[in-house]
Amino acid sequence: MVAWGLSAPEQTALQHISADSLRTNLSYLASDELEGRDTPSRGLDLAADYIAKQFQQAGLAPAAGDGYFQQAKFDQTAVNMDGFELSLTAGGHVVKPGREEVRVRSIEGLNLANAAVVRLPANGAIPPAGGMVVAGDERRWGQETFLNELQARKPALILLLGRGRPARSGATVGPATFLAEDDGDHAPVIRVRDSDAAALLRGKDGIAVTLHLANPAVSHVVLRNVAGLLKGSDPALRNQYVLITAHYDHLGKTAKGIFHGANDNASGTVSVIEIARALAALNPHPKRSILFITLFGEEEGLLGSYYYGHHPLAPLKDTVAGINLEQMGRTDDTSGAEVRAFGISGPSFSDLPDIMERAATAEGIGMYRRRDADDYFDRSDNYAFAQFGIVAHTIAVAFEYPDYHALGDVIGKIDFANMAAVDRGVAAGILALADEPDVPHWSEAKGAAAYRNAGR
After folding, report:
1. What is the per-residue pLDDT for 176?
2. What DSSP element (H or E) covers 243?
3. Is residue 412 part of a domain?
4. Are residues 232 and 210 in the same domain?
């Protein structure tokens, strides 16, 4: 590990990270006009246009197929539960979960009568699944890594069975609508929270399923990741990439009001813009190329980051690290105030956190380590990138804070001076990732195994 310190030009560039500029950009993204930046929505489109303009003014090159926009075609599906029926039979025992115990994700109607079900193992390899109905324990197969692998085998239907109590009478489980890539793998998925259904997996009798699901209503939408490139200056390293991301969507609005999402995640988005502006002013540029991307649909299931993984703008094998910025604007973490410091998700999973900490500390910014920080690794877009093998983590000032996903997440609660200071520390870490000869690697920690072994 080499000693780390910024050059005088780098120090000058980072000092241009401005609380006033952060405030100006965040004031627009969290304004009433953008109506909470739901995915999809007019407000989300306005946000994308604004971010692209900021990238252009910062001096970033367009990095996507449509200038600064990576356009993504999605199906928006409204599930139709009219006449829904589901029964599972094994050894003469019949289980009929109620609608309130079921979450459906399917872009087509389904009709099955006593169809044979293939059990998925609690551990080990996936059995042949093409064109078959498969069922497994939700605790394992409901995890994104395993579910994506299972989807790629193109089963006819995936049943995820878990133990649990029924929801309140009249309640529904999961959203009535969902979004999915129109050219992706879309085997229908039905999640069932019913202890009797889950018990069937532990038996030895064959399982059969009878199902009626009406055709859903499907419409087509175009969503956009916004991408700008700072081309590297070193001939030997410029074809390697550091990925800097934040999601720019939030929860939209309801009859109760607008979910402005000032901290989650306008703060991360404007931090990406401001860091990009500072680093683009350097001459020469950092040695490796840096790809700045703001992502759609994180709140809907990491949609923009998964889309990027399936349609990368830079080769995944040449993407050496990813830094995702979330919730950078508030210091009032529920575990205690965090000032001039940031946390990082999954700190035991790679040596990237050590690189970031060393560089930030030299700039007077600390990195705190929550005991449960590894548990946050799958809570944001870094998780999608990690499943494609990229050493990617999320940085946040506050992991948990009052008003999370609530109407009170507004601009008046943002500490812009602290956000600017922390952004300078993060930018110093990004420079270390872009300039140091060595690149981050996954650790030998058990929790990192799935990402360490991910193919590129």
Report:
1. 73
2. strand 241-247
3. yes
4. no
Question: What would the two tokens of residue 206 be?
Answer: 């064959």
Please report where in the chains the tokens 């001459």 appear, as a residue: 283
Residue 169 and residue 94 share a domain: yes
DSSP letter assigned to residue 67: B
3-state SS assignment for residue 77: strand
Distance CA 158, CA 64 (A): 34
Q: Is residue 3 part of a domain?
A: no
> To the nearest 5 percent, what fractions of the chain are helix, strand and coil?
30, 25, 45
Q: Where does a domain end: 187, 215, 243?
A: 215
Tokens of 183: 């050219």
**What is the number of structural domains in the chain?**
2
Q: What is the pLDDT of residues 351-368, one digit of tens each?
A: 999 999 999 999 999 999
User: Is 2 part of a structural domain of the chain?
Assistant: no
Region of residue 327 (phi > 0: left; psi between -120 and 50: alpha; otherwise: beta): left
Domain identity same for 345 and 250: yes
Separation between Cα atoms, residue 192 and residue 83, nearest integer Å: 17
Largest CA distance in the chain: 77
Secondary structure of residue 50 in the 3-state scheme: helix
pLDDT (tens digit per residue) in 268-293: 999 999 999 999 999 999 999 999 99
Q: Name the token pair of 379.
A: 């809570």
Cα 229 from chain centroid (whole Å): 20
| pTM score, whole prediction | 0.91
Name the β-bridge partners of 324: 245, 394
426 neighbors 334 (Cβ within 8 angstroms): no
Contact (Cβ atoms closer than 8 angstroms) between residue 390 and residue 322: yes
Query: What is the 3-state secondary structure of 395-449?
Result: EECCCCCCCCCCCCCCHHHCCHHHHHHHHHHHHHHHHHHHHCCCCCCECCCHHHH
Rounded to the nearest 10°, the torsion over CA 338, 341, 345, 347 is: -120
Q: Are 250 and 406 in contact (CB under 8 A)?
A: no
H helix or E strand, kind and range, residue 88: strand 85-90
Of residues 53 and 450, more confidently modeled: 53
Q: What is the length of the chain?
A: 456
**244 CB burial (10 A radius; 0-12, 13-18, 19+):** buried
First to last CA, the chain: 26
Tokens of 152: 């790629």
Provide the domain limits for residue 108. 80-215
